[in-house]
Design goal:
Layout: H1 7-26, H2 36-43, H3 47-53, H4 57-74, H5 76-82, H6 85-109, H7 112-139, H8 149-156, H9 167-182
Pfam families: TetR_C_43 (PF21597), TetR_N (PF00440)
Domain HTH tetR-type: 10-72
DNA-binding region: 35-54
């Protein structure tokens, strides 16, 4: 029988992950610059302890990615409990901006094959969380009926194209434009006249 991890080992692991998250936040998601000895020092553990939990930087980054994704997914229910559906969706998408920055850093720092495995194992959780928010928005009449999760994910792909120096200025603007586009049409004429040249 496998034994449960000792509580101090779990606490050490949690401190290491939190220290790595804090460092990534300070470096605007630059995962390639993450230094394990600095993470160990910040977490108050020896390097041997860090390497027992995370043999490589890639293992640590993968765990940070999972942690960030879990926090994002777990935020859905409280946001829906506290806000009307469209407001909850807007707040969640703003949180997703921070997640996207970490995701981009992790993608750049680990091997493509490892990223594919990690992403394929986790991405359905993000789809389910977003789907719940969209369904609640549709039920309240605040989100267009024809919009689905894939539509929004494709639009959010624009975040991956923002150059890092422009991230803070553009990411939240993109989210605001996406949210505006999710609202149902209120009698506005959006049809274009037929153009014979198209």
């Amino acid at each position: 029988m496998s034994r449960e991890p000792r509580s101090d080992a779990v606490a050490n692991r949690d401190r290491i992950v939190e220290a790595a998250r804090a460092e990534l936040s300070r470096s605007n998601g630059a995962a390639a610059d993450l230094r394990l000895h600095g993470v160990a020092k910040a977490a108050g553990v020896g390097q041997g302890t860090l390497y027992r939990h995370f043999p490589t930087r890639e293992h640590l980054l993968a765990e940070v990615y999972r942690y960030e994704l879990t926090e994002l997914v777990d935020a859905v229910a409280p946001l829906l409990a506290q806000h009307p559906p469209l407001r909850a969706l807007t707040c969640w998408l703003r949180r997703l901006v921070a997640y996207a920055r970490v995701k981009r850093g992790v993608m750049a720092a680990i091997e493509a094959s490892a990223w594919r495995d990690l992403h394929s194992d986790q991405h359905h959780r993000l789809d389910e969380a977003l789907g719940m928010l969209l369904d609640q928005g549709k039920a309240a009449g605040d989100v267009r009926e024809e919009v689905d999760v894939t539509d929004v994910i494709l639009l959010l792909g624009a975040l991956s194209r923002i150059p890092e120096p422009e991230w803070d200025a553009r990411a939240h603007t993109i989210v605001a434009v996406i949210v505006d586009g999710l609202r149902p049409h209120r009698g506005h004429d959006t049809e274009c006249p037929e153009d014979p040249h198209l």
